[in-house]
Design goal:
Elements: E1 2-6, H1 13-25, E2 30-37, E3 42-49, H2 52-60, H3 62-75, E4 76-81
Antiparallel strand pairs: 1-3, 1-4, 2-3
Length: 93
């Protein structure tokens, strides 16, 4: 789970975000994600992975590591990452 507060401006964020989505979809064990962002820049993205091996593969991807470094320098005023295990998930639809 990645909660972030964006800096103003795009600074290539949109294109990089699209590329990260393309890359994570190719990670074996990636199950999907949910994401939302407010007009004020607060965003929450929850990525679902089959196991810790899949999480490690995503974390170790060279392009993802580069994007994380850019995020710390350019795109985020603040962020928090939570890694958690989902024991149960259900909804109305």
């Amino acid at each position: 789970m990645f909660t972030s507060l964006r800096t103003p401006g795009d600074n290539d964020y949109g294109a990089t975000s699209d590329r990260m989505e393309e890359l994570v979809n190719a990670v074996p064990g990636f199950l999907g994600m949910d994401s939302a962002r407010t007009p004020g820049g607060l965003g929450i993205t929850v990525g679902y992975f089959r196991d810790e091996e899949a999480i490690a593969a995503w974390r170790g991807d060279p392009e993802h590591r580069e994007a994380r470094a850019r995020g710390r320098k350019e795109w985020y005023e603040d962020y928090v990452v939570h890694v958690a295990k989902v024991e149960r998930s259900y909804g109305l639809g």
